[in-house]
Amino acid sequence: MPKLLFAILVALVVLRGLYLLAASVRNLRFSVASLQWPTAEGRIERIEDKRSDVVYSTRAIVRFPVNGVEYTTDLISFGKSLHPFDRTEAGLQRVRYPDGVPVKVSYRPNDPSTAVLRPGMHAEAFRSIGVALSILLPGFVWLCLLPAMSRGMERAADSGRVFKDMAGRAELQGGYVRERSPSPAMPSFRNVEFLFSSVGMAVLGSALTSLGMLALASGLPGLYWAYVSRNWSTVDGQVEVNVGYAAMMDRQYKQELPVYPPGFLYRYKVAGIEHVNSTRRFRTVHRAGNDGAEEAAPSNLPVGTAVRVAYCPDDPDVSALEPGVDGMGFVLPAIGSILLIAGCSILIRVGVRLWTSA
Hints:
about 350 residues, alpha+beta, 5-stranded antiparallel sheet, 12 strands
């Protein structure tokens, strides 16, 4: 019975991973097709939880009509929504998409409920594939190891029954055997130890593999933007917001975590359309403490400073003041690669041990 329940649990994990992977592939397919979708005029409707004029949670939807029927969406692009988990990103989206602002929506012709503000394929769409693989890959490995682990559990159970039977016979004969020379028939806990050590290593390998995939899924889009930004066109922009070092330090040490507007913000125009962003460099991790506050609100870029903005030609909302690959951009992908290699190595070793001993 325990083996059956464990097999069902592993199968459910694999099915969940397959479902997420299928949904991710579908979104990639939609992102390519969305370039040809018709458009409609919509309007942002923002829902926020405020206390004392401070926003603590925020989400938004877009309402738009198609053939007299009203639909809603919360997708900025396939891979990014109007209510992100990251509070810093949520603060930026509040500035980009304020309540009541009109927007253009691209919708699927045969299903207008599938709609997006920024059609086309974006790097963020690949993150969901990484999340799906972080579940699917360890689950698939466990599924492959189930037959060998099942045989190991049977051998461990047989050893326990033999030991119990021998102990019972010795007690019936009037005492316990004090010394016994080793023999092939003598039961051993080696099978039990081998099984538990293999299971422990498999759990560790699965955890490292999942964490590695998540780190890569989170870090690779930023590294990609940093690499391709070297050849982007640039336009003139201007710093609009810079709350300063002291305010950023105060935000870092707040006990509660409200959704703040960006502490640093610049505006620029591309083809007559105004855009706003807060990205200086494409980094996968950010510094904390004094260095982090200075990086988030640089003292050498006060409000009104003229800046050159490098922007993505296919998506002008993606921009940076200092394009190119920065050393901090490699941190998360490097950590993810190390964890993934270590986890896969452990899982391969466990598989070889179990199958060769079966």
